[in-house]
Amino acid sequence: MTTSATAPTAAPSTQPARVATKRTVLMCRPDFFTVVYRINPWMDPALPTDTALAVRQWQTLYDTYLSLGFDIELIDPVDGLPDMVYAANGGFVIDNIAYGASFTYPQRQPEGPAYMDWFRANGFDVREPENINEGEGDFLLVGGVILAGTGFRSASHSHEEVSSVYGREVVTLTLVDPNFYHLDTAIAVLDDTNIAYLPSAFDEASLAILRERFPDAVLVTEVDAAILGLNSFSDGYNVVIASRATDFERQLRERGYNPIGVDLSELLLGGGGVKCCTLELRR
Ligand code: ARG
Q1: Catalytic residues
Q2: What pTM was estimated for this model as a whole?
Q3: Is residue 252, in this structure, part of any structural domain at all?
Q4: CA gap 182, 152 in Å, rounded
């Protein structure tokens, strides 16, 4: 390294230009956010939460997406469903088809029908799920391929279901660290060919697949992953990330992306970050 840490990093000439594509996303204002049960290691009902602060932080994410030119749809939050803000879990949407969610834990199960009602009312072709799955928390589209997580939440049978619903290749990846219980806490999709991930979140077989398919992937540090830094949302150029994920930010910049940090510390108390609050609607 001949440059100092603060010097701007010139993009290598071999690096492809990053292209932003306008996204359409579904979000849910955290009006009823709190932590009253524990279904992942991040949640501690004994710790206080500040719903007004959660709403302000969420609003910053919303405003960031607006400034990037995204179309943002909103689903009404429901009193008594504090995790509904994590819209990524509400389903998986490609080609105007919305594969509904069927939640693992009873506390979140009513969210499945609530999101499916919204999809129906907004013109999506809804497919009721036969298997437990938590939507885009565990299904990530990279180019034409669907990466599918299992191990903590979505059942592996849901991967077969998704493959038949969309007629696309589905690659099963097994998560092994309870802190990274959804695929979107362990992998960030940067564009149609590039991802970032946390190697230690996966079993050996899954790691072998990731290394083979994505030899140039960004590998994030445990430190960045420990604040859910991977839980980010990219339009192909702009990558909205946790503001504290500083090494991830550096790596993104070096590769020609434009990282934009936001602070969702309050929503981290529920075990979610940027991506969890974002469901992409692909019509
Ligand atoms: N408290 C929620 C749960 O445990 C957080 C969900 C985070 N969402 C995500 N897409 N990773 O289910």
Answers
A1: 182, 276
A2: 0.94
A3: yes
A4: 7
